[in-house]
Write a structure and sequence with these properties.
The structure is a single chain. The chain is an alpha/beta fold. It has 2 domains: 2-34; 47-160, no CATH class. It contains 6 helices and 6 strands. Strands 3-4-2-5-1-6 form a 6-stranded mixed sheet, sandwiched between helices. The radius of gyration is 17 Å and the shape is globular. 28% of the residues are buried.
Length: 170
């Protein structure tokens, strides 16, 4: 993480071939979805992805919590899907305030404690379907993270940046 924000010349040179390979593979994958060689699946309700392009926490979960409060005040029924980073759940799993964080991850647990229906799963499409099967009255789904998960079609992306982190000169 330290190198991400304050690159060192020797490490940058050492990592350049891997960076190039990663960038090429990511570009090919993006194009496969754009050209229809790989397909995205649209859920029956609008989906908003909240993600980041920085390393480390930049405030995605607090923003998701704020959006949940705002939508609740407007009486919009909103659920959340997440990968459940740090959790061990292998299949889509509903998160409740008393779920085990070792199974579902700690951030989804915070969102469930806020009163939102939450489901975690490595397969975001399956997690979205699972959440809608459990809560068919949902009008909107927020995806906590997932900018790179193109298989799940989204209606809107919100990218969260940390304003206190200097951007490298590139």
């Amino acid at each position: 993480e330290q190198h991400w924000y304050r690159p060192r010349g020797w490490l940058t040179a050492l990592l350049a071939p891997l960076e190039g390979l990663f960038a090429l593979l990511a570009a090919v994958r993006r194009q496969a979805f754009r050209r229809g060689w790989k397909s995205s699946e649209k859920l029956p309700v609008p989906l908003v992805v909240i993600g980041n392009i920085n390393v480390g926490g930049v405030g995605k979960t607090p923003l998701t919590q704020a959006l949940l409060r705002d939508f609740a005040a407007r009486r919009v029924k909103v659920g959340v899907i997440s990968r459940g980073y740090g959790g061990s759940a292998a299949t889509p799993t509903e998160v409740t305030p008393d779920s085990d964080p070792a199974q579902v991850g700690d951030e989804p647990l915070l969102l469930a404690a806020a009163g939102a229906p939450v489901a975690v799963g490595r397969d975001r499409v399956a997690a979205g379907r699972h959440l809608l099967a459990l809560h068919p009255d949902l009008e909107l789904i927020l995806s906590d993270d997932g900018l790179q998960h193109y298989r799940l079609a989204r209606d809107l992306e919100i990218v969260v940046l940390d304003p206190g982190v200097p951007c490298p000169d590139r």
